[in-house]
Amino acid sequence: MSAAAEDVVTEAPAVEAVPKRAMTLGLGTSLVVLAALVLAPLFVKNFIIFQMTMLLIYGLAVLALNILTGGSGQFSLGQSAFYAVGAYTSAILMEHFGMNYALTLPIAGIICFGFGFVFGQPALRLSGVYLALATFALAVAMPQLLKLNFFEHWTGGVQGLVVTKPDAPFGLSMSQDMWLYYFTLVIAIGIYIASVNLLKSRSGRAFMAIRDNEIAASAMGVDVALYKTLAFGVSAGITGVAGGLGAIAVQFVAPDSYTITLAISLFLGMVVGGVGWLPGSIVGSAFIIFVPNMAEHISKGLSGAVFGVLLFLVIFLVPHGARQVAIVAQQMLGKLTKR
Length: 339
Description:
The protein has 16 helices and 2 strands. The protein has helices spanning about 5-10, 20-25, 25-40, 45-70, 80-95, 100-125, 130-145, 150-155, 175-200, 200-210, 215-220, 225-250, 260-275, 280-300, 305-315, 320-339, and strands at about 160, 250-255.
């Protein structure tokens, strides 16, 4: 056996699925979190419920980016473009074609999956910072494309589109915000479970093999081109569903709502939540939603500086994000139970 062949053999463990705890919470912790998410809206006002809905929506978008970056090792600063396509797809189908809001979401996901898969083809020639720059260009260009006169009849141009928030079905006695929250929660749980199963599957192992060592993965028979574009497509599809939900929740879509700032915020949420740790997506989402508000409360004139200091402290103290905190907490709990 040649030295090169021996190197490939020694790299084989990289193809194994990551440990279950690396992707999910324990059963007990998951049930506690689920109970909190189900019961919390019963005790808060509609505005807080709306914020919790956005927490779930951004959590889905961060999770999608985590599959792409944490799963397959591809960097993207263009998630805001996929989010915008999903949002406009749902808005156009609802307002121009009168389609039911629930039916627009799978369509948004399919369209964004195709968009991401196609975009992933030329991106195959790029990696690292060059891929990040290509996706950055996509994020910068998308708001301008949505303003073109050619699309104005459908998109509303710079004025955007107003979306009608749905009422609770079957005569349920709950507010629009509460119904939309539970609707979003069911979708978020479904996508989360599907994402965990995806990363545990053969395709997920292929993603992670490419992330760890692309050359070794190719030598072991992994179709690198297929799986890299597939990762882009899956990530874009989930982001598109999140964008559709966001359009319904906010009741408005406009080009300037989906700038590069949104893409950077989603990337930041992934880092804070822990790259490659799917439960951290909700923590990262909470950070990008609530910490800017906290910074503004501390100092309205210097909110950006305060946010920067808080972000620096988080990255300095826990460089691996919420995943690092969870591991430390688990170790401490293990020591306490042994006593």
